[in-house]
Amino acid sequence: MLYPVVIHQEGNSAYGVTVPDLPGCFSAGDTLEEAIGNVNEAIDLQLETLVEDGEDIPQASQLEELTHQEEYSGGVWFMIEVDLTRYMGQIDRLNITLPHLLVTKIDKTVSENKLFKNRSHFLVEAALRLLSTAR
User: Fold this and answer.
1) pLDDT for res 135
2) CB 39 within 8 A of CB 80
3) Are residues 106 and 41 located together in one domain of the fold?
4) Same-domain status, 81 and 43
């Protein structure tokens, strides 16, 4: 899943990073590279905590929903890829039945879109999005 992340320069040298979709998830670094590296660790810790506490992993917002919010003004946005399957427990193999045309469309989308590693990753992402809106 791609999470929007905003980075602000703090003073003349330090950088602060915030992940709006994960409340309380922020990081910093003396360099831009360090700040971005540290936010990966912050995201990992935040998601592990959510799962341990039995809470749902928040769905990522669309970048356009966040960029106009006052609290993020002056920041630079980027997207960070997070593999949520790491936080969902063991992997279960399934044998599912899908119409051929649907499988063909899924495979075409996967081959044309680098967001998806494979057919299973596509189906996981689709299921997560649908489940997050079904509440």
Assistant:
1) 57
2) yes
3) no
4) yes
Strand ranges (E), the chain: 2-10, 14-18, 26-29, 76-81
What is the extent of the structural domain holding 133? 90-135
Residue 17: count of CB within 10 angstroms of its CB: 27
CA separation for the pair 108, 61 (Å, rounded): 25
Residue 39 CB neighbour total at 10 angstroms: 25
Q: In 10 A of CB 13, how many CB atoms?
A: 9
pLDDT in tens, 56-106: 889 899 999 998 899 898 899 999 989 888 888 888 899 999 999 999 999
Same domain, yes or no: 78 and 97: no
Q: For residues 40 and 102, state if they share a domain.
A: no
CB of 110 closer than 8 Å to CB of 116 = yes
Residues 39, 100: one domain? no
